[in-house]
Amino acid sequence: MTDRPALRLVETASTPEVEWSWFCGRCAAPSGAPPSPNSRVCPSCGFGLLLESRTDSIPSNDDAFLVIDSSLLVQGVSPAAESLLGVDEESAVNRPVPELLVPADAEAQGPSRFASAVAEVMGGDDSVGIFVRPWNTFGVRMRVKIAPCGPPRAALLVIEAGPRTLRAV
């Protein structure tokens, strides 16, 4: 009789619990407790809608960020993003995100990779990083962290470290 290895149960590493927090979709002001359903306007700036996202993805008030809905339309723009992208909130809201940001690598799977990354994040709890550039600027790469937010289900695009991420290639 030969000695064969015995089968045993292998325990997998547990994934850490993801924490979620509320923030303003305009000024990024944190909100401690969940807002009541009838009062989701930011008490800090009075303009933004309070949204929930992963605590590790919530931007600071100095960060450039966009909120994108399931139709890939811009629904929120931070003041830093207005400055960085050269648009004002009024002209950016309800505009398709590819009219503001496009993939940095024009030939690396085209715009569908950027759109699929945004859609993928909206359907789950994980965040992804991707390089983009302003639609009308070449030779620039900005790293964007895309995370889920809502309600309703949306994507939070945080341009990491603001204008310092602009790099010529």
Structure notes:
- With 169 residues, the chain is of the alpha+beta class.
- The chain has 3 helices and 10 strands, in the order E-E-E-E-E-H-H-E-H-E-E-E-E.
- The chain has a domain at 56-168: Beta-Lactamase (2-Layer Sandwich), CATH 3.30.450.
- Strands 1, 2, 3, 4, 5, 6, 7, 8, 9 and 10 form a 10-stranded antiparallel β-sheet that branches.
- Strand 1 (20-24) and strand 2 (30-31) form a beta hairpin.
- The N and C termini lie far apart (66 Å).
DSSP strand count: 10
| Count of alpha/pi helices | 3
Mean pLDDT comes to: 85
Strand content: 25-35%
Low-confidence stretches: 162-169
SSE-based structural type: alpha+beta
Key terms:
169 residues, Beta-Lactamase, disordered C terminus, 10-stranded antiparallel β-sheet, 30% strand, alpha+beta
Give a quick rundown of the structure.
With 169 residues, the protein is of the alpha+beta class.
Give the secondary structure arrangement, pairings included.
Elements (H helix, E strand, L loop, with lengths): L19 E5 L5 E2 L18 E5 L9 E5 L5 E4 L1 H7 L3 H4 L8 E3 L6 H13 L5 E7 L5 E11 L3 E6 L7 E2 L1
Antiparallel strand pairs: 1-2, 1-3, 3-8, 4-5, 4-9, 6-7, 7-8, 8-9, 8-10
